[in-house]
Amino acid sequence: MRRQISKDIAKERVGILIANALKEAHANEKIANEQAYLARKIAMRLRVRLDYEIRQLFCKKCKKFIIPGRNSRIRVGRTNTKSIRITCVKCGHTYHKILSGRTWNF
Ligand SMILES: [Zn+2]
C-alpha cells in the first residue's frame, strides 16, 4: 500500500521533470538533460513504468534524452503511413514510431 503511494508520487515527479525538461529544452539543453536524467533515475529506483509518451523521449540505444525537433531528426513517411522515423543525433540510432492519432505539440 505504502509502496503504491510512493510510486504514484514518483510518477507525478517524473511527469513534472519531463514537462520541465521539454519546456527548458529550447532554452537550455543542459538543464533539460539534467532534469530528464533525474526523472529517469527516480523512475528506475522505484521501478516505475514510464508512460509511452515519456519513454519515447529517451533513445532506446544510448538512453539519452531526445528533444523532439532539437537533437532528434523526425521523418514522416508517406502521407498515408502513420509512422515517423526518429533518429537520435547523439548515437545515430533510428527507430520507428507508429502514431496513434494523438496530437503532438512540440
Ligand atoms: Zn541515441
Low-confidence stretches: none
Category from helices, strands and their pairing: alpha+beta
Separation, N- and C-terminal Cα atoms: 36 Å
Do you know the CATH architecture? Up-down Bundle
Q: Hey, roughly how much beta strand do the residues contain?
A: 15-25%
Instruction: List the ions, cofactors and other small molecules found in this model.
Output: zinc ion
Strand order of the largest sheet: 1-2-3
The number of distinct helices, counting runs of at least 4 residues, comes to 3
**H/E series:** HHHEEE
How many beta-strand runs?
Answer: 3
Main CATH class: Mainly Alpha
Count of discrete domains = 1
CATH superfamily: Immunoglobulin FC, subunit C
